[in-house]
Amino acid sequence: ALSVVSKAQLDRQRFATRVLAVLSPILIGALAVLFDLVLEPVAIRFDYWAWEDVVVPSRNYLSWFLISVGVSAPLSAVKIRTTTRLPTYYVAVQFLFMLSLLPLSL
User: Fold this and answer.
1) What is d(CA 6, CA 2) in angstroms, rounded to the nearest whole number?
2) Residue 60 CA from chain centroid, whole number
3) What is the pTM of this model?
4) From the CA atom positions of the chain, what is the Rg in Å?
5) pLDDT in single tens digits along all 106 residues of the chain
């Protein structure tokens, strides 16, 4: 009975690992789009760049999503892990900074 439970637990763990490998890049793509949704109005307001039609084209957000998924999926599949949290903190600080400027942009 112990080996059946252990095998069942191992099967659940493998399944969860596969699900995470699929969902992780999608979550990363969604977070990249969220970051850009906050970034765009701030960047436009402070003249970092401008869009031809004034409105940010939806293909911009689609591109952010697809590129983020495309880059993160292989990294997730080969299970590359980092030992530092610095990139996470760097992006979080940038996001919070742009978020703090967002009210000035609307």
Assistant:
1) 6
2) 15
3) 0.82
4) 19
5) 455 557 778 888 888 888 888 899 999 999 999 999 999 999 999 999 999 988 999 999 999 999 999 999 998 878 777 789 999 999 999 999 999 999 998 8
